Amino acid sequence: MGKxxxxxxxxxxxxxxxxxxxxxxxxxxxxxGYHAIAPPWPHKSASAEALRNSHPNKDIAGNRLAALTxxxxxxxxxxxxxxxxxGHSIGGLMVQLLLQRxxxxxxxxxxxxxxxxxxxxxxxxxxxxWGPLGFFTSVRKSFLMSFNxxxxxxxxxxxxxxxxxxxxxxxxPESKLIVRDTITKAAKVNFENPHAPLLLTSGSDDNTIPxxxxxxxxxxxxxxxxxxxxxxxxxxxHFVLGQxxxxxxxxxxxxxxxxxx
Length: 261
Fold this sequence. Notes:
The chain contains eleven helices and six strands. Helix content is 38%, strand content 11%. α5 links the parallel β3 (84-88) and β4. A six-stranded parallel sheet has the order 2-1-3-4-5-6, with helices on both faces. The protein is globular, with a radius of gyration of 17 Å. The chain has 261 residues and is of the alpha/beta class.
């Protein structure tokens, strides 16, 4: 693209997990000359343990997707340069929404929740999402995954002790409303709009966001006349940020970013 890439990265966390899930990624990017931040969602700045102990948390329960996107919009606009945006799950959706606003030099959506209108009836997707949607339960109360739900939705295929350690390090309460918002106009993307370069990645073992959803998301951008790339990784579940293979994923992303310069 004939210009020097920015060296600021904003990592955008997904739902159900603590922002410390990016700690190793931040250090890895910093070791390669980047300034990296991973701002916590509103009402989620405490430790994962403290947030679990606060459940049901009415403040977290009140989080909404539109307000959360505005929150990251404000963070990005205050930075000295257009940053690289890297998000996981709902964080990947927010990357796409922010690029629609002209924010960000480039975006990476890792196992992204798809924008409005992209659906699947694959059983794993429906099973993983039923509890967080919280139908027939009060939206004034936050949702906290049980360990069994976590094992299916995030860490399937991993050793049980590793699954348990990950649960206590990262699992936190979530807003049912924010999960429901992902199928509303708050998650709307005009796929034909020009946008900054975007990479979408998927994992073959992801129960929460099946790879087919990410591929459908990618194909929607075919008429945007903007750089849009897709990468599928074998053996990745929804805990992709913390799997032993995370450095391979990070290196792929860094290589992709370097090719933009």
